[in-house]
């Protein structure tokens, strides 16, 4: 007897503040944990206003560092995801999968690897040779094109991935991205030598996600 594919709903949030997107994630997580409600697995797609976020390892980022970054014109959030500091902003496609891993495979390591493989597959659709490294995320040579940082509680996932499309890369100059010294960042636009918008990247990312997670997608909202 064959097992049906998991269904995943895609929600396009457009450009939204990090705090607002965090609240939407929390609402979807709560629905998953509420046994009286039926909550679909969901992909939240968005762009953020400029913001620096840090993960659960917050010691390297005292209040003085938070103030310095805010003075640059960005917001700052301390979160419960894995990983160290990164930047989100316009021109970066952010994908927050809120999934019940019971519908896929109850393994956080498997899940992170599948996210990496999804982005590698998407990059290949653009003709970009991307790969993993001992450091989490997806890389083109020694430059990170996509950061990955997740949280998983009771096998419900949150946070996710941030793919640089036509991001203003100068924002990364103010930090050591993901705390990794000696490596850089890149974007789809930089690798291809032309402007690649988030709108252009979305279909290829969703196609790769569908293939990698063996799921079916339903859609709600438009990306703008």
TrEMBL record:
PROSITE patterns: BPL_LPL_CATALYTIC (PS51733), LIPB (PS01313). One of its GO terms (biological process) is protein lipoylation. Belongs to the LipB family. This is Octanoyl-[acyl-carrier-protein]:protein N-octanoyltransferase LIPT2, mitochondrial. Substrate binds at residues 81-88, 147-149, 160-162. The record marks 144 as: Lowers pKa of active site Cys. Keywords: Acyltransferase, Mitochondrion, Transferase. Its main location: mitochondrion. Pfam families: LplA-B_cat. Gene3D superfamilies: Bira Bifunctional Protein, Domain 2.
């Amino acid at each position: 007897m064959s097992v049906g594919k998991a269904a995943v709903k895609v929600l396009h949030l457009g450009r939204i503040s990090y705090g607002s997107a965090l609240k939407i994630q929390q609402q979807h997580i709560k629905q998953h944990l509420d046994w009286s409600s039926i909550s679909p697995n969901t992909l939240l797609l968005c762009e953020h206003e400029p913001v620096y976020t840090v993960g659960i390892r917050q010691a390297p980022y005292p209040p003085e560092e938070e103030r310095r970054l805010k003075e640059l014109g960005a917001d700052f959030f301390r979160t419960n995801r894995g990983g160290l500091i990164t930047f989100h902003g316009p021109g970066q496609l952010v994908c927050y999968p809120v999934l019940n891993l019971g519908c896929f495979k109850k393994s956080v390591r498997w899940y992170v690897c599948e996210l990496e493989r999804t982005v590698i597959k998407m990059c290949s659709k653009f003709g970009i040779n991307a790969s993993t490294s001992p450091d989490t995320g997806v890389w083109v040579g020694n430059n990170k094109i996509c950061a990955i940082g997740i949280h998983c509680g009771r096998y419900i996932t949150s946070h996710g991935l941030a793919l640089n499309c036509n991001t203003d890369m100068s924002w990364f100059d103010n930090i050591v991205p993901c705390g990794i010294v000696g490596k850089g960042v890149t974007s789809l636009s930089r690798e291809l030598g032309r402007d690649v918008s988030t709108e252009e990247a979305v279909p290829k990312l969703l196609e790769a996600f569908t293939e990698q997670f063996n799921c079916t997608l339903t859609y709600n909202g438009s990306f703008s």
